[in-house]
Amino acid sequence: MDGVTKDPVGLVIGTDDAFALEFWVWVYPHAYLQLDDVVTVPIRLPDDREVRLHGIVDRVRSRYEGARFDSDAEAAREQRLPVGIANAAHVTVTRVEPEIFVAPFPGAAVYASEGATRDEALYFDKMRADRTAFCAGFARDGRPIYGNIEFLDGTRGAHMNISGISGVATKTSYALFLLYSLLNSDVLGAHAGNTRAVIFNVKGEDLLWLDKPNGKLDADARARYESMGLPVGPFTDVGIRAPVQKESGHMTPASDTRKEGVTAYAWPLAQFCRERLLKFLFADADNETSQLSFVVRLVEEWLADVRNIADPDEHGFVSVIGGSEIVTVRGFWDLVRAIEADITSIAPHAADGTRNAFIRRLYDAAQTTGHLIRAIPPREAEAHSIRVLEGRADGGNSRVTVVDIHALPDKAKRFVVGVVVKGIVEAKERIGSGRPLVFLVLDELNKYAPREGWSPIKEVILDIAERGRSLGVILVGAQQTASEIERRVTSNAAFRVAGRLDTAEASRGEYGFLTDAAKARASILKPGTMFLHQPEIPVPLLVQFPFPAWATRKDEVDRAAEASGPPLRPRKA
Predict the structure, then answer these.
(1) Considering only Cβ atoms within 10 Å of each terminal Cβ, which end of the chain, N or C, has fewer?
(2) CB under 8 Å to 141, separation ≥6 — which residues?
(3) What is the C-alpha separation between 231 and 239, in angstroms, rounded?
């Protein structure tokens, strides 16, 4: 049989029941099967038709045959008891061709799948024939594992969710490898050049170096990139945005390890008012039906009305029109005081306690986030904005945009994430098409879409989870524990990924896509190893991914490679 080992590795066991979707294999003494091996069992039916059952080994066992007691192990070792050693492997069926679901016959030969047969077992043959296959990693034997882009780009599904223990599961590293694979392959078709990605940097300044080559990349990692036809180098066309320094009167980025190539971001006062961004300063506020949310909506309407807030002047200052005099607002604190002065007339039907609570929270937000909302001259505002899709006069739209939020307080992080994501959704709605795609990579998703409560950010994330497929906004979310995420977010993710997991967490219902054996293994996975589940394949696949070809910190930057220019794409076989 083509695509399998010449000789069988074992036989279907007759002492254990064999089912159409699972069976045990007795492994020949001269051979072995290990976890994640792919096997094929060809059987011939009574009507002379041949059926191929493909499956993955998910359990292995070894035991004495002829022994009755545990202590017989000593007698057998000393050759005082005649026993035989039997090795067996449990196989979960992944595909049956043609689809005639019968149990494999006891004694049927079992072969290790290779080449085209392995591709058939894992549906890779169909993906490659349809040109929908992208490299999602590698098996432990170095052979590629593919994903189907149709379940990620909105054609038949969308979104990816990644879970795992912080610092061990390498969630962000895997998300970046997938993004790199997608952006440097042909799988996105004619829209590849216009595809955009937004990555929120939430830990350290690791992601501020994506556009620099990694000097610590070894030969094995290079070979893996080259085997998939991927260039060995950093991300290209990267725009890096860092928050403006809090105490600076100038638009200076607040980044410590890198200054060159980093642009400070902030929101002009007028934009904050016109686009009703106030709600994102209250992203951790009470639920939607609370009186506080009612006051927030009233203040947003008041700020958006040109009869109350005039258009900005050449300095970016806005004027509050009302009362007995016109007040010039030169910064966010001035705007807060103007709101406080008019809060009774803005929200006349709200209780005094609710208005006071609103003002207290507004002052608190000004302390943590106020520096991100400031007077910016209109001629300079565009250069410091975070615009992903719509054209900019300075040509500053990058294919990959890194938004640094790691050093911001939680309130400020929520504000930035909420406003940026809201802007992407609104831009896609104006375009009115699912293309080009926008990949949104967001770690610590539990902060923005928690299981309990309501917030404006959670509403936006939910909108993407449920409607992003048609909009072409693809959420690649990551968190330590999927059990803390709103169920509608995780349930709408077509791709599920799990790295190293706590044993108790792995037992939660959110990890139902993992087999019992995979749940047990999840507690001992090494960094760089994940379980990947996608709709076409009924069992999760163990995948590994190579060391990043891009720098993840300053001391990894390969200055010599950087000076020589971008890498060439390997020639495809």
Answers:
(1) C
(2) none
(3) 20
Output the six-digit token pair for 107: 């004694």
Dump strand ranges (E) for 511-571: 529-533, 541-544
CB 135 within 8 Å of CB 181: yes
Identify the band that residue 26 occupies on the pLDDT scale cut at 50, 70 and 90: very high
Give the whole-angstrom CA distance, residue 363 versus residue 418.
Answer: 19
323-329: long-range contacts, CB 8 A cutoff, minimum separation 24 = 329/269, 329/375
Q: Domain spanning 159-266+377-557 has what CATH number?
A: 3.40.50.300
For residue 564, the Cα-to-chain-centroid distance in whole angstroms is 32
The reported pTM is 0.86
| Residue 347 confidence (pLDDT) above 50 | yes
Q: Say what the alpha-carbon torsion angle 413, 419, 423, 425 is, to the nearest 10 degrees.
A: 80
pLDDT digits (tens, 9 = 90+) for 130-188: 999 999 999 988 889 999 999 998 889 889 999 988 776 588 889 999 999 999 888 88
If phi > 0 it is left, if psi is from -120 to 50 it is alpha, else beta; for residue 38 that is beta
Q: Write the single-letter amino acid at 376.
A: I
> What 8-state DSSP symbol labels residue 213?
B
Tokens of 381: 């505002």
pLDDT in tens, 442-492: 998 888 888 887 888 888 889 898 888 889 899 999 988 888 888 888 889
pLDDT digits (tens, 9 = 90+) for 27-84: 999 999 999 999 999 999 999 999 999 999 999 999 888 888 888 788 888 888 888 8
Q: What is the helix (H) or strand (E) element at residue 344, kind and residue range?
A: helix 332-346
Residues 245, 252 contacting (CB under 8 angstroms) = yes
Which of 316, 241, 319 has the alpha carbon at shortest distance from 271?
A: 316
Structure-token pair, residue 250: 């100038």
Q: Residue 401 in contact with residue 198, Cβ under 8 Å?
A: yes
Instruction: Classify 204 in phi/psi space as left (phi over 0), alpha (psi -120 to 50) or beta.
Output: left
Secondary structure of 36-60 in HEC code, one letter for each residue = CCEEEEEEECCCCCEEEEEEEEEEE
Single-letter residue type at 235 = F
* Helix, strand or coil, per DSSP, at residue 207: helix
- Would you list the domain boundaries of the chain? 10-129, 159-266+377-557, 267-374
Phi, psi of 428 (to 5 degrees): -65, -35
Backbone angles phi, psi at 25, to 5 degrees: -120, 125
* Residues linked to residue 403 through DSSP beta bridges, in sequence order: 200, 241
Distance of CA 46 to the CA centre of its chain: 48
Tell me which amino acid residue 33 is: L
Measured distance CA(263)–CA(188) in Å, rounded: 29
